[in-house]
Amino acid sequence: MEELSFALDCNGGDYAPLEIVRGGILAARELGYKVFLVGKGEEIQSILEKSGEAGNPLLDVVDAPDNVDMDEPPSTVLKRKNSSLYVCGKLVREGRAHGLVSAGNTGAVLAVGKFIVGAEEEVERPAIGVALPNPKGKTVLIDVGANVDSKPRHLVQFAIIGHTYAEEILGIKNPRVGLLSIGEEEGKGNELVKETYPLLKQTNLNFVGNAEGRDIYAGTFDVIVCDGFVGNIILKASESLGLAIVQMIKAEIKKSILAKLGAFLLLPALNRFKKKADFTEYGGIPLLGAKKPVIITHGRANAKAIRNAIRVASEFLTHDFNSKLVKNIKELIPQEVRV
Fold first, then answer.
1. Per the omega criterion (within 30 degrees of 0), is the bond before 17 cis?
2. 129, 141 in Cβ contact below 8 A?
3. What's the CA gap between 18 and 2, in Å, rounded?
4. Residue 20, H or E segment
5. 18-26 and 41-50 are packed helices; what angle lies between their axes, rounded to 10 degrees?
6. What would the pLDDT profile of 180-215 be if each residue is shown by its tens digit?
7. How many CB atoms are located within 10 Å of the residue 331 CB?
């Protein structure tokens, strides 16, 4: 495979540009990838000089002074052609970069992924998939925000996309696919779920029925399919719950010497758990079905998270994810279901 290169949005994120550029430096230094550092050129160059990386041939500064703020409409990025996100998308579309990473406005990243980078021909709607931890490994929840209004045929494609993600990237063979609903029995759920269920039964997926909310973190399914409206609420509620639990545990530990001693003894296990749940470890979440990898990382991403987001982008290329996804769409969805 040719030398991999990635477009990095250095204007997006709470700690931009310093932590973003540092993440690009780590990716070049530790992973050996070429990184286009896209943003305010003078600021980026200053960071490179202070880091002793100004002459690194793997780091290419691309001046794009404009930015799409978090409170701006996502469609703004399609008109603002000097923004770092738009320029990143253009670098990927033109083939100069093999993928895109951003910690900026999520909606704007999605807009660039869908309309600048573009979707694979067989994919009607790219979707965001997230690999959530469970006691047995990971469960792919898809879609978690790319499509807030979906039709049954879209959810069928999301199931194929999630299946491919679980099998090719996570290494789960013949993943168990579930449809998120309010009950496990067939016939439960809203109209979207009721209409999608029989379509999934007709596919060649390992579809095992409805999944309930309690199944998301239980490990009873490898892939759980839902529309982006529901999925995004689950994702953000999960993140909030995780932070609340950590804060409550810390508060309880401070209440007594015995609790502090117990926490000290549990420290190795707590650190292992933290690594499983730490977003800086997994880097970011992918827009699956785009022609090239588009990775959306957390707004609070630090250098480590950015470096790992670029690593994640590279995995989709080295695993030849898109060609396998297109193959699965053709082979796993009967023609009558695709229409």
1. yes
2. yes
3. 29
4. helix 18-26
5. 60
6. 999 999 989 999 999 999 999 999 999 999 999 999
7. 11
Whether the Cβ atoms of residue 149 and residue 230 lie closer than 8 Å to each other: no
Residue 39 tokens read as: 């943003």
* Number of residues in the chain: 339
> What single-letter DSSP state applies at residue 69?
-
For the CA atoms of 24, 27, 30, 31, what is the dihedral angle to 10 degrees? Answer: -160
In whole angstroms, give the CA distance from residue 300 to residue 294. Answer: 18
Q: DSSP per residue over 274-330, as a string?
A: HHHH-HHHH-EEEEETBSS-EEEE-TT--HHHHHHHHHHHHHHHHTTHHHHHHHHHH
- DSSP structure string for 104-129: S-HHHHHHHIIIII-B-TT-SS-EEE
pTM of whole model > 0.85?
A: yes
Q: Which domains does the chain have, with CATH numbers?
A: 1-123+289-321 (3.40.718.10), 125-282 (3.40.718.10)
